[in-house]
């Protein structure tokens, strides 16, 4: 009989264990539900989802059925309509996804079959010797490697797509930029092949440099499941023996970054409330300011700190921000503006195409110092020194802050020292970093006393 495959964070056909399981059991009806919960996905993520869906439509030979509505109504209705035997999904690990799946399962008269997950190792699997979860990254990463993962699932040779089920029109994909095209399976695999073919060899050296195109830009594809991380991990192993020593260090480093993604999903699985509150209990008492005008200035890239403003403007323009700049802008909100990190996380989530509750909320907590790692609360990034170090020629700032385009080289990080620094309307600094750093440490001392 018919097997429904309900696609969610797995918008691909290759290395897709739920699809493979369905294809082995019968005719496959591929389904995507436009859930009202997506309403707060933001324009960038919506554009990325539509791009990935167009790819999935082509990859399923036009069989993809799109329906709008709440999944606990849409999916059971489709089962009734088609007489399907089962509904196949990838296992979900976020609090919202688990809640949604429980509702659907309760409303279904047929099994909801979960096969695989969006991770190399399903969240919750990697444990300490005594069965408890990890709270620190490095030992998690070692245990994760030791645990290992399956080889990528084969693409079933002859999938029989179920036909004749009515679909809403596919949501219109936007005009695609190069970056957006990497959100679909085909585009992501192309981008990955090009990155693996050379640029990855310099990853260790270039990954912290927002002025260079030194990272994979696959976070959107990974978020949407246009590519499975296991595919990437298998390719790293395949090419490593033929690369030199420095390149191998880069491959290893890339594997470690994928491990961060897995770690944060694991933490969220064990601590669902860490999506929106501090993991470290003792730090829950820190005094914060309500977001006001300065928060708006941060959101819009008008703080007067060039590296911070460049990042916030890249976020608004591209729906993506370089990792180093995510850390610096997040630190600025928490330590210079004294605003609690969930406000910033919400702004990121609304604008990032790769916005992912596990990576975003724990990336924020890593920066705030209230999260998993040894990363201490008292570490405060200096936004000027960070710019000088990681954007040494100032190219990144000039790309995103046109009011500073006339200042050459690294001088762009300190317009207050440049002749004519403010000639083109750049905002003066909204605060004194040294004073706010002291203020952040005073507030920390307040809860430690
Ligand atoms: P690459 O350097 O090419 O890394 C490859 C992949 O590894 C990434 O695509 C990503 O899946 C994973 N990865 C790399 N670094 C991290 C990390 N620190 N934590 C988790 N996974 C990582 N990443 C998201 O995918 N979604 C988010 O919503 C998100 N929010 C963040 C918020 C803050 C405050 C911070 C500091 C980091 C956040 N990150 C988030 C992590 C990281 O910034 C992005 O994954 C990375 O910039 C994506 O670019 P890339 O694909 O070119 O990365």
Automatic annotation (TrEMBL):
Organism: Agrococcus citreus
Gene3D superfamilies in the cross-refs: 1.25.40.80, DNA Cyclobutane Dipyrimidine Photolyase, subunit A, domain 3 (1.10.579.10), HUPs (3.40.50.620)
Transmembrane parts of this sequence: none
Name of the featured protein: Deoxyribodipyrimidine photo-lyase
SUPFAM superfamilies assigned to the protein according to its UniProt record, in alphabetical order: Cryptochrome/photolyase FAD-binding domain, Cryptochrome/photolyase, N-terminal domain
Keywords for this protein: Chromophore, FAD, Flavoprotein
Family: Belongs to the DNA photolyase family.
Cofactor(s) this protein cannot do without: FAD
Photolyase/cryptochrome alpha/beta domain sequence ranges: 1-120
């Amino acid at each position: 009989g018919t097997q429904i495959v309900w696609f969610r964070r797995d918008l691909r056909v290759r290395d897709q264990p739920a699809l493979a399981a369905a294809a082995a059991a019968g005719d496959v009806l591929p389904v995507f539900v436009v859930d009202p919960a997506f309403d707060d996905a933001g324009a960038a993520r919506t554009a990325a989802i539509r791009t990935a869906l167009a790819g999935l439509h082509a990859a399923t030979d036009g069989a993809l059925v799109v329906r709008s509505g709440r999944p606990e109504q849409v999916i059971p209705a489709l089962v009734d309509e088609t007489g399907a035997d089962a509904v196949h999904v990838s296992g979900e690990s976020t609090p919202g996804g688990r809640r949604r799946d429980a509702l659907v399962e309760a409303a279904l008269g047929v099994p909801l079959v979960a096969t695989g997950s969006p991770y190399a190792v399903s969240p919750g699997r990697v444990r300490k010797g005594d069965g408890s979860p990890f709270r620190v990254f490095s030992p998690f990463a070692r245990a994760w490697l030791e645990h290992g993962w399956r080889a990528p699932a084969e693409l079933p040779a002859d999938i029989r797509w179920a036909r004749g089920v009515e679909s809403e029109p596919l949501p219109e994909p936007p005009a695609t930029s190069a970056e957006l095209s990497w959100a679909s399976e085909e585009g992501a695999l192309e981008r990955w092949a090009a990155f693996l073919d050379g640029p990855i060899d310099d990853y260790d050296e270039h990954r912290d440099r927002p002025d260079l195109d030194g990272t994979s830009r696959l976070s959107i594809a990974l978020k949407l499941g246009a590519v499975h991380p296991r595919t990437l991990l298998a390719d790293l192993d395949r090419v490593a023996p033929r690369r030199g020593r420095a390149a191998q260090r880069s491959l290893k480093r890339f594997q470690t970054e994928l491990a961060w993604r897995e770690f944060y999903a694991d933490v969220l699985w064990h601590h669902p409330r860490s999506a929106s509150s501090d993991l470290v209990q003792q730090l829950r008492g820190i005094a914060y300011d309500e977001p006001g005008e300065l928060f708006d200035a941060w959101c819009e890239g008008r703080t007067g700190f060039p590296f911070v403003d460049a990042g916030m403007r890249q976020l608004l323009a591209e729906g993506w921000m370089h990792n180093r700049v995510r850390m610096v802008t997040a630190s600025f909100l928490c330590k210079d503006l004294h605003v609690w990190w969930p406000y910033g996380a919400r702004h990121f989530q609304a604008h990032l195409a790769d916005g992912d509750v596990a990576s975003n909320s724990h990336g924020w907590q890593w920066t705030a110092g209230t999260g998993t790692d040894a990363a201490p609360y008292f570490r405060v990034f200096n936004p000027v020194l960070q710019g000088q170090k990681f954007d040494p020629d100032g190219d990144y700032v000039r790309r995103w802050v046109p009011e500073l385009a006339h200042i050459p080289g690294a001088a762009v990080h300190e317009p207050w020292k440049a002749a004519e620094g403010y000639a083109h309307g750049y905002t003066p600094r909204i605060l004194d970093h040294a004073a706010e750093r002291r203020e952040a440490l005073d507030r920390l001392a307040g809860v430690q006393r």
